[in-house]
Please model this.
Amino acid sequence: MADLDSDVIVVGAGNAGMCAALAARENGTRVTVLERAPEPERGGNTAFTAGAMRVVYHSADDILALVPELSESQVNETDFGVYDEAQFFEDMARITEYRCDPHLVEVLVTRSLDTLKWMRTKGVRFMPIYGRQAFKVGGRFKFWGGLTIEANGGGPGLVEAEMGAAEREGIEVLYGARALELLCDDDGVHGVRVREGGRTSELRSRAVVLAAGGFQSNAEWRTRYLGPGWDLAKVRGTRFNTGDGIRMALDIGASSYGNWSGAHAVGWDRNAPEFGDLRVGDGFQKHSYPWGIMVNAEGKRFVDEGADFRNYTYAKYGRRILEQPSQFAYQVFDAKVAHLLRDEYRIREVTVVKADTLEELAHKMEDVDPQGFLKTMKAYNAAVRTDVPFDATVKDGRRTEGLEVDKTNWANTVDEPPFEAYAITCGITFTFGGLRITTDAEVLDVDGEPIPGLFACGELVGGLFYFNYPGGAGLTAGSVFGRIAGSSAAALR
Ligand SMILES: Cc1cc2nc3c(=O)[nH]c(=O)nc-3n(C[C@H](O)[C@H](O)[C@H](O)COP(=O)(O)OP(=O)(O)OC[C@H]3O[C@@H](n4cnc5c(N)ncnc54)[C@H](O)[C@@H]3O)c2cc1C
Model:
């Protein structure tokens, strides 16, 4: 053991990897983090997030435990509601069509609050998501959709806080260091082969934690596993998550698990670049479709934009957009709802057309059949149940009736100028398939046995998400299983 380079090597310096590193370090364990990206591009997908985290809470006191900085008047003018274990569990089950692994989900749900409190002890700060997840009703902020907390400073703030903690605690982080393969024999994993500065070397350790993200940035794997057409999706986040961690583990006999043909994918600006741009962050997303309608190149609607709160539909609608002719759609709004549009609709890098009549708008919407669009609008406007009041804070049941694709909540007529139409395509966030782990984050082999010395956490874990995803669960899953993976790895003697 004397010639070990480190006790625990963590592959990937996103939220999951850094939680693993911080947890492993708690017992004085030597920890080395290998990060493929150069330092200016550090933070993986985590850096691109808004930092929203889904967490169990039973009262305003639980929120206060995470955000003690809240003033009494802020607490008094906010209705946080409750999001208990049963609601989180039910959301995971319903959203994944009852496919998610109940053992992993139980850990995710029951450890969520405690893990965020632990992150606070490491210097991460949180805030209620007043801007995006609350509406003012009768003078009070009311939260909706089970998503209430975000990291201060969003994803960049979270990365900053975790990296700061790592530095304070003496965790070594090597940038531009790409793990290539696991060093392994009959006794298990003993380190990694790594490429750094054009040279390949071996780093030996007692344990390795894989936290290198999914395979969304690998166009070939996307096409191979998600299916034809997925090569044409844009990547919302880091260009470095190409499936390395998954491949390295499969190469030594790890078991694949979860929804390998599934991915989190959203509506994303049609002219966004191939990969995410840290200057724009998540600004290319366009998540206000529940207040308007979406049409494809034929001018036809193709989803129920009001099927549920945005948190519960946005992650599966990217796939539906990819399936449309030429892989794009327009989101259309009128003046009645313009004030409800999220900040991301007002960024400089937005593809939008505006007009004072629907006819004019139809001709401005590039590549859309104007006649088809106008026909859709006429039928849609006539089908809205205007007798039901509109209420953005609840599933209001204000719907259309009799359309081929009805809109079942928040259906407003689109008839008040000016009109706005935003061009979107499919933006992939992360892939759902990955490795099979135990509730102690040990990686299992194809025979169902733990591979000694190998742990995993974050996006590359399979079994949590299928078909869809409840907003804010990705970071929380990374934190919960990251912390467990780090502790398990450090406990290995
Ligand atoms: C635009 C956007 C917005 C999002 N918003 C939210 C949100 O608000 N809330 C939420 O819960 N989730 C959100 N997500 C999802 C969230 O980003 C992920 O669930 C989470 O960050 C994954 O953490 P991770 O540590 O597993 O992966 P990452 O943060 O991606 O970290 C993986 C790291 O591994 C590194 N790596 C890859 N290969 C190697 C290798 N061979 N050797 C060394 N290092 C390697 C990568 O460079 C990267 O830094 C969003 C994602 C995107 C893209």
In short: The chain is about 30% helix and 20% strand. The mean pLDDT is 96. The first strand starts at residue 8 and ends at 11.
